[in-house]
Amino acid sequence: MALLEVNNLDVRFAMRGGEVCALRDVSFSLERGERLGIVGESGAGKSVAAFTILNLIAKPGYIAGGEIKFDGTVLNTMKPKALQSIRGNRISMIFQDPMMTLNPVLTIGAQMIECLKAHRRISTKDARAIALHKLNQVFIPSPEKRLDQYPHELSGGMRQRIIIAIALLLDPDIIVADEPTTALDVTIQAEIMELLLLLCEKHNVGLILITHDLGVVSQVTQRTLVMYAGRVIEQGPTREIINDAQHPYTQGLINALPQMATPGSRLNQIRGSMPTLTKIPAGCAFNPRCDFASDICLQEVPNFVGSGNCKVACHMVDAMVKGQPWTPILTDKPVTKTVPLPEVNA
């Protein structure tokens, strides 16, 4: 049994003009010590999926269907008080902006000690010792000094290291990192991701990494979910997805990486933009931006099809796997093979 299982999750927001669906039929799992990446553009539903795991969706949002199981316990039906024993204790979260996470009027030590006392019966002296140990683990220089400093006295990279230390305070089974390097420069980003990878491997902690950067995912995670308009459209081993993406959207994300463009030329981009929740296209939500869309893409939501060790929700890939010709609307020319498809397991 997987440590974390998310099955057919639907999340909706009640609006004045009617409900909108932020997550549709999202399913994935995480084994103990496994590193999972969730990627996609802004608005794809990545952060909503992360917040929903810990039931941090605020009203008017709510879980409309599906199940979230952690270590055999169903989280989405637990009472708030019972959920507190898991949230921050066995499942920790790292948010995008450390200055929004840390309390500006409390010292780093006071915040770490408060976190420990909220979940354990422990003296202030012992809590401070644990906080000091965790700061050492994330390679904070002069950790004794940092405990008595305020967040504004630290650099952005150091604040993010402290957030990671706080996430590790109670030795969690899973860390959910929601774009943890967004506000940092490239050099510090690499240091933070290397630190997360080292800590997860050393302590056998599961990691769910939310990001829009496939370059980061390729270096840190073992499996990847690609999301678009609230749905998972491709999932599988990270190496297979990076080296041989099947869905046209995933191909577009990879082609948009700076290193994929010729030096001196314009960067590649996916035409159009992510649809709003109130205007999700019929059929495959990606069809208005897809160069390979056919008539069926405008009418039917694609089911998952197996391709190698990956699963892809794409009518075109389904046709290619079955050896059928494919005629995109934009070209009216039959396509026999759009991407190199691995052999499908029987």
From TrEMBL:
SUPFAM superfamilies: P-loop containing nucleoside triphosphate hydrolases (SSF52540)
Places the protein is found: Cell inner membrane
Record bears the keyword Transport: yes
GO MF, one example: ATP hydrolysis activity
GO terms for biological process, alphabetical: peptide transport; transmembrane transport
Catalytic reaction(s) noted: a dipeptide(out) + ATP + H2O = a dipeptide(in) + ADP + phosphate + H(+)
Membrane topology value: Peripheral membrane protein
CC per GO annotation: plasma membrane
Transmembrane segments: none
ABC transporter domain residues: 6-254
EC numbers on record: 7.4.2.9
Major enzyme class: translocase
InterPro entries membership: AAA+_ATPase, ABC_Ni/Peptide_Import, ABC_transporter-like_ATP-bd, ABC_transporter-like_CS, Oligopep_ABC_C, P-loop_NTPase
Any Pfam family: ABC_tran
Keyword terms, alphabetized: ATP-binding, Cell membrane, Membrane, Nucleotide-binding, Transport
Record-linked PANTHER family: DIPEPTIDE TRANSPORT ATP-BINDING PROTEIN DPPD, OLIGOPEPTIDE TRANSPORT ATP-BINDING PROTEIN APPD
Family: Belongs to the ABC transporter superfamily.
Protein name as it appears in the record: ABC-type dipeptide transporter
